Fold:
Amino acid sequence: MSGHSKWANIKHKKSRMDEKRAKIFTKIGREIIVAVKQGGPDPEANPRLKSVLQKARENNLPNDNVQRIIQKASGGSDNTNYEELVYEGYGPAGVAILINIMTDNRNRTAGEIRHIFSKNGGNLGETGCVAWMFDTKGVISVDPSTLKMDADDLMLLAIEAGAEDIAVEDDFIQVYTSAESFEEVKKNLEDAGIIISTSEITKVPQNTVLLTDLEQARQVIKLLDLLEDNDDVQAVYANFELADEIAEQIG
Structure:
């Protein structure tokens, strides 16, 4: 999976995450609550909870906080009922946007998301309008500076472990897997001594819109930032890449 500044999108997302850690902690906490209520407090018997706890560790959410959330959710003291929804729409330049929502008030959330789209050059679409453009994949990220082998050897190791593809950038390496083989590939890489920076089941676009206009690129990024800032938004996926010269100007 090669392309124009694929890492620029990843790096931009990471910088936003670093700036908004408190909000991320709140969203992860909400995911933990839902996972515990659905499958119980034991991560070994609850794959969804196990995955969320991995995300909590990767984002340095203190373990004491995690345990308090689990106890609260499993003890029945949290009466909030979150509904999981998927919103779909289009941004500037026809960029497809898929949004995972977790809300206790769907009417409030729908109004807020529609407002963000309409005020920033996009429009909220009907169910199914863009979901078909994305595949569910496992994505495992590795920092090249931590490798004790070259990228070619890592590529062979990943493919032999069951990975579907690998993207090599200057700052990061990403291993793509099917959702079904994600855990096995991750374990095989860890057993081989590979240090994994992040790992998740996510949505990967089948094709991307290449943004070559600076103003459009800024509009798309602003829209995505505002969506991610919404308290009820758990994840935002978009099918765009930045042209190299645009990525350099945005930084």
About this structure: Residues 1-8 have pLDDT under 50 and may be disordered.
